[in-house]
Amino acid sequence: MSFIPCDTSMIALVDCNDFYASCERVFDPRLIGRPVGVLSNNDGCIIARSAELKAMNIEMGTPLFQIQALERKGCIALRSSNYALYGDLSARVMQILDEFSPGVERYSIDEAFLDLAGMQSPEEICRQIVHKVPVYTGIPVSVGAAPSKTLAKVASHLAKKQAGRKGICVFHSANDPELINWLNTLAIEHIWGIGKRLGRKLRQHGIETALQLREADHNWLKRHFSVPVKRTAMELNGTNCLTLDDTPDPRQNIMCSRSFQKATNSLTDLKEAIRFHAQTACQKLRKQNGLAQAILVSVRTNSHRFEPQHKEARAWALPVASDDSALIIRYAQEQLEQIWQPGFRYRKAGVMLLDIIPWRPMQLGLFEHQQKEKKDQEHKRRNLMHTLDKLNDRIGRDAIGFGLSREQADWKMKMAYRSPRYTTCWNEIPVVKAN
Ligand SMILES: [Mg+2]
């Protein structure tokens, strides 16, 4: 058994409860206590549910026509998705979280990690968060805190599910008996970042619970599985070793963002960064055969500096669910133009794809001739995207894409000491000289 004691770090995960339904309730209090469902683009199917709707066993993805009768009878309330509202309320929640910790990392539209290391009483901070966020925004939240992100995720689950906890669950140590008991019952597939496929493989080696994974030999895990699996095991042991870039994408979201090498106010620079992130996100999206229904674009200045601060995020619905890089880049850049402001030195920009659904052919028009024309068009776009992905897989990441980005742009990562990309970049292949 390997155990690395490390109780100095303390990470909180703040999660908005039933976020979309809660946003709808803020401005329509009649919805409080009622079963509320939020519909996908064009009112296709359910993409978010209030607790009351979940209790009625109405599943995610249920098509509108199956529940329209319930709505007409007044048994349930339905709302079309309103991403502009959700994006704005999300930004307000994040703004309040900034008051509690200098290290806030947005993880999805309704979740953020807070660094609480060295703070006197994590419980007290969690209590204040659970009290203040709903008072200021109308959105109820729950908080789980523990020495690592993966354990914070476990704690957050308990905070939400166990009513007696009043939305708060704090584990000061990875050796908390209650936590160990819970890890003993937590199925391997349900651990953050493991999932079904890896879970099946781990089960073949007799690792069936979170506790068994944490107690497995970490080097063996690295050899037989991968570094991320080893890291997950270390995280379960209380070692905080995941940066936000390593964290698994939130369910139904894909997030791409990064801090810039140098802060910049140039809209051109930011547009370039957004274009880059949107492309990476779309590549991931197509790999998992999904379609995004909305996007969230965010920018922020460096909060550790004494200079004018600006932080904003905006969510927007796509006209149809899509995996098309060109379309998503265009929308993302339009959103960026709305939130960018002169006079601020931005340090980070990101794109998040929201409410991902499995790929399916879209209904493209009412009439046959319209459908055929649009189908041909869509077919061509899909081919183009797949060709791009294939070329990038073969030649190297970002070999082909939309728009050129300058090698020395301010928004790019600092990599002054990077060795040449010998095997993936044509320009950096080693050169052999014979005299
Ligand atoms: Mg949530």
Q: How would you characterize the overall build of this protein?
A:
The chain has a domain at 254-395: DNA polymerase, Y-family, little finger domain (Dna Ligase, domain 1), CATH 3.30.1490.100. Helix 4 packs antiparallel against helix 5 and helix 10 runs antiparallel to helix 11 (227-236). The strands form three sheets. Strands 5-6-1-7-8 form a five-stranded mixed beta sheet. The chain is built from 14 helices and 13 strands. The radius of gyration is 23 Å and the shape is globular. The longest helix is centred in the last third of the chain and has 28 residues, at 368-395. Residues 1-7 have low confidence and may be disordered. It has helices at residues 19-27, 51-55, 64-72, 83-98, 122-137, 149-161, 177-185, 195-204, 210-215, 218-224, 227-236, 267-287, 325-339, 368-395; strands spanning 11-16, 36-39, 46-49, 77-80, 104-108, 111-115, 141-146, 168-170, 254-264, 290-301, 311-322, 346-354, 357-358. With 435 residues, the protein is of the alpha+beta class. The N and C termini lie far apart (57 Å). The protein is 40% helix and 19% strand. It binds magnesium ion (MG). Magnesium ion binds at residues 15-16, 19, 110. Keywords: DNA damage, DNA repair, SOS mutagenesis, SOS response. Residues 11-195 form the UmuC domain.
